[in-house]
Write a sequence for this structure.
């Protein structure tokens, strides 16, 4: 067990944002938190990381656990002359070898001299992931890492996350709104709407009435899209993927 929340409750500005949430993250698994806007997803991540005060319950982290955190977005002043190389050395200076290896790992080789303010959304996410990986984390935490990316960008980023998990053994906890990609990229899905509505493997959760109530009938289309892309593209599922990879595929589209 890397992180465990027991009966976690958070109130912000008098409103109860999270109510009696109990969950664990085990070593090496990819867990995705899904939920509508305003359901408390980002707050849950920050509560697990100790960044917001708890109103009730407790969070236990494994002793010595290293966590790499990729926030939802990073605002960088365009007038600030901050290069990718300098960004990677904040707050701790790293060697040239480490910087080159981290950038190469995320598909951003030779980007060291580029200004951070000139990066595209997808490039920024990859650089932030490179910086998070420098800590050699046992747990990688990502808050909507593909927000604003197009579908090929999303698929490529999630494929990268699956590769990183396979290579490093790090567990991954991420917030996402991408139902179709979640099917391919997660071992376990937690549906959140201020409390945990349902959780389990993607296949189990997608069939749960609570999930359908949150996301409506669009879930079937999302599942068909996942299966279609699974058949016709190179978006291989994560290494620990579950039974859905062998079920009947939709060829619609």
């Amino acid at each position: 067990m890397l992180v465990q929340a027991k009966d976690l409750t958070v109130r912000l500005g008098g409103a109860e944002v999270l109510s009696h949430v109990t969950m664990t993250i085990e070593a090496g698994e990819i867990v995705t938190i899904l939920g509508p806007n305003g359901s408390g997803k980002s707050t849950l991540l920050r509560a697990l990381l100790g960044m917001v005060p708890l109103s009730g319950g407790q969070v236990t982290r494994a002793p010595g656990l290293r966590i790499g955190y990729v926030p939802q977005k990073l605002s960088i002043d365009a007038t600030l002359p901050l290069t990718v190389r300098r960004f990677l050395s904040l707050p701790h200076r790293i060697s040239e070898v480490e910087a080159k290896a981290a950038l190469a790992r995320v598909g951003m080789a030779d980007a060291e001299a580029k200004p951070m303010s000139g990066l595209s959304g997808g490039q920024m996410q990859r650089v932030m992931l490179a910086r998070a990986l420098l800590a050699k984390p046992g747990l990688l935490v990502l808050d909507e890492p593909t927000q604003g990316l197009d579908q090929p960008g999303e698929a490529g980023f999630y494929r990268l996350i699956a590769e990183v998990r396979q290579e490093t053994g790090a567990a991954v906890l991420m917030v996402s709104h991408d139902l179709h990609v979640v099917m391919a990229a997660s071992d376990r899905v937690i549906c959140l709407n201020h409390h945990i509505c349902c959780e389990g493997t993607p296949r189990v959760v997608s069939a749960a009435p609570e999930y359908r109530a949150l996301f409506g009938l669009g879930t079937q289309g999302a599942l068909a899209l996942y299966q279609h892309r699974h058949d016709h593209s190179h978006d291989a599922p994560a290494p620990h993927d579950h039974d859905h990879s062998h079920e009947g595929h939709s060829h619609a589209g």
